[in-house]
Design goal:
CATH architecture: 3-Layer(aba) Sandwich
Largest sheet: 7 strands, parallel
Shape: globular
Bound molecules: adenosine-5'-triphosphate, magnesium ion
Radius of gyration: 18 Å
Strand content: 15-25%
CATH topology: Rossmann fold
Distance between the termini: 33 Å
Number of domains: 1
CATH class: Alpha Beta
Number of strands: 7
Structural class: alpha/beta
Order of helices and strands: EHEHEHEHEHEHEHHH
CATH superfamily: P-loop containing nucleotide triphosphate hydrolases
Strand order of the largest sheet: 3-2-4-1-5-6-7
Length: 238
């Protein structure tokens, strides 16, 4: 049960939006998702309250340093992916969550300012990996990207991060009204009324491409059917 978290010391970078888009898209694809709302501002919990029951998604609120690991252990048997939304801070809960994560996504806005926030998190990751001997993969996801953000600015951020050996996702998250609207209306892009919100189809397409790329970065799960396929393959070769 991979644990995916979203972190950036800079507030407002787009963590919660990126976390919710991934959760709702994977749930739509049939995966059982638990979102752990580890931000005291409770954005995800408020989204859940506005949404009511959403198929394949459960939200855990009121998480503490002491309770986080227990939640993961307890829910692991009934969960395909854990998604942790973290506060824009650099505190003990963030550190604990990073330590329990398989992959950390760092949303960075397509502007030079946010490269600073990303650099802070990268420093933190480096310290954790070295001092606490923690190991997890991490990738930057560019977000709130508009046609106004110049290719030059994006290339500058990509260059800065590549120099630190960081994977930058190929699919950026665009600046879209539909993504903002999720928090107003609750529900998912799939329950959103296209007559009321512009470009829902394009938003869905973006969310799907982003989720596909995230899944490609996840550790391969050896399921029973995959094992029998492998055994079958071995027999064919023999
Ligand atoms: N791709 C996007 N398109 C449109 N609006 C966005 C997008 N991403 C984020 N926003 C908006 O930007 C604001 C901040 O985004 P979000 O809450 O996701 O950031 P955050 O990193 O979780 O912030 P915090 O540090 O406060 O937790 C919100 O108003 C959100 O609706
Ligand atoms: Mg947030």
């Amino acid at each position: 049960m991979p644990v995916i978290s979203f972190a950036n010391a800079k507030g407002g970078a787009g963590k919660t939006t990126a976390a919710l888009l991934l959760a709702t898209e994977l749930a739509h694809q049939g995966f059982r998702i638990i979102i752990i709302d580890a931000d005291p501002q409770r954005w995800i919990s408020q989204w859940q309250e506005a949404s009511g029951k959403v198929r394949n998604i459960e939200v855990i609120s009121e998480v503490t340093v002491a309770s986080l690991n227990g939640h993961l252990r307890e829910m692991a048997p009934v969960t395909d992916y854990f998604i942790i939304d973290l506060a824009g801070a650099r505190d003990a809960l963030v550190t604990t969550a990073l330590g329990l994560s398989d992959h950390v996504f760092i949303p960075v806005q397509g502007s030079a300012m946010d490269a600073k926030g990303a650099a802070q998190i990268l420093d933190l990751l480096a310290i954790l990996k070295k001092k606490a001997r923690l190991d997890f993969d991490h990738s930057v996801v560019l977000t709130r990207v508009t046609s106004m953000v110049t290719t030059k600015a994006l290339l500058a951020i990509k260059g800065l991060l590549a120099a630190k050996g960081v994977n930058v996702m190929t699919t950026p998250i665009g600046e879209r009204t539909a993504f903002k609207e999720l928090f107003e209306t609750g529900g998912t892009l799939h329950t959103m009324d296209p007559a009321k919100v512009s470009n829902v189809d394009k938003a869905k397409e973006n969310a799907r491409a982003y989720a596909v790329e995230v899944l490609r970065l996840m550790p391969i799960k050896i399921t029973r059917s995959a094992v029998s396929r492998l055994i079958g393959l071995g027999r064919n070769i023999a």
